[in-house]
């Protein structure tokens, strides 16, 4: 008999590597069953999150997190000893913790019928740096804290894999063999090329500010325009987020925009061509929210001011898009609430929309 019925392992697993595997095996030494809690789930394909959560989200050709883990665990003959839940990102830590608790509860309710109250549960992880502060956010579960087993990070692997000529010798030495086979198979795919392009753009963008004494802080505005169960969105044309949906918005023009609200209206006009008079737009602003999560944008620290505009129900106003002088978008359209999918949206725009809904 092992001490715990269920051990929970939270991570993004981008990709699953040898230290992840070592932690998983430690978890199964302590628990009868292991539950992988996949964070940043159902995200669009980016350099930070290039691997899909599972086969349901088929928006690129790369391998999935669940498949990479499953192949590895099956190779070790762990068969029925592990399972998955997926948790999307949130705008605040409290929302994220609630989502983790909710997904774990649903899993327990489904798989431990009649014995939920008697379960012994633990959370396992390495308290390696500032990114693992979440290990202290679940006091209702026991904690299994283990030292670093391998001095390795998924970031290090992505840095050497998502380049024009991947260092496959290094990759082979730090990931399980089944993961290596998948990465080798996909290194010349369109998926790999897309992620490399996304990374290249961000690095070039950041290089503009490399000589500054302090990292820059960017100020942007976004408009969440609702009408009759629809939200107004645009489709991005360049990297980062090429081809993804986004809210109409952009950077504050420090020399021209007299206010943040003016910047929001200007960007909204440029990117959507929305045929609604200014007084109507301004008069229907219902809420303004500052979104300033430290890692919300790959381009750097970006603080956005989001304006919620609710237009009166009725026929949807005409939009066209494509007039942005920066060339950032090529199409604007009204999207029904029922068609909102997190993996189709740029950065945290999906979460912002859901928060306002």
Could you please describe the fold and organization of this structure?
It is a single chain. The chain has helices at residues 18-30, 65-75, 93-111, 154-161, 168-174, 177-186, 190-207, 260-272, 278-283, 349-356; strands spanning 4-11, 31-38, 82-86, 121-125, 142-145, 217-227, 230-236, 245-246, 249-251, 285-291, 301-310, 329-336. The chain is of the alpha/beta class and 357 residues long. It folds into two domains: 4-192, 3-Layer(aba) Sandwich (Rossmann fold), CATH 3.40.50; 217-356, Alpha-Beta Complex (Nucleoside Triphosphate Pyrophosphohydrolase). Strands 6, 7, 8, 9, 10, 11 and 12 form a seven-stranded mixed beta sheet that branches. Strand 2, helix 2 (65-75) and strand 3 form a beta-alpha-beta unit.
Features:
alpha/beta, 357 residues, Rossmann fold, seven-stranded mixed sheet, Nucleoside Triphosphate Pyrophosphohydrolase, 2 domains
Helix-strand layout with pairing:
Layout: E1 4-11, H1 18-30, E2 31-38, H2 65-75, E3 82-86, H3 93-111, E4 121-125, E5 142-145, H4 154-161, H5 168-174, H6 177-186, H7 190-207, E6 217-227, E7 230-236, E8 245-246, E9 249-251, H8 260-272, H9 278-283, E10 285-291, E11 301-310, E12 329-336, H10 349-356
Parallel strand pairs: 1-2, 1-4, 2-3, 4-5, 6-11
Antiparallel strand pairs: 6-7, 6-9, 7-8, 7-12, 10-11
Helix pairs in contact: 2-6
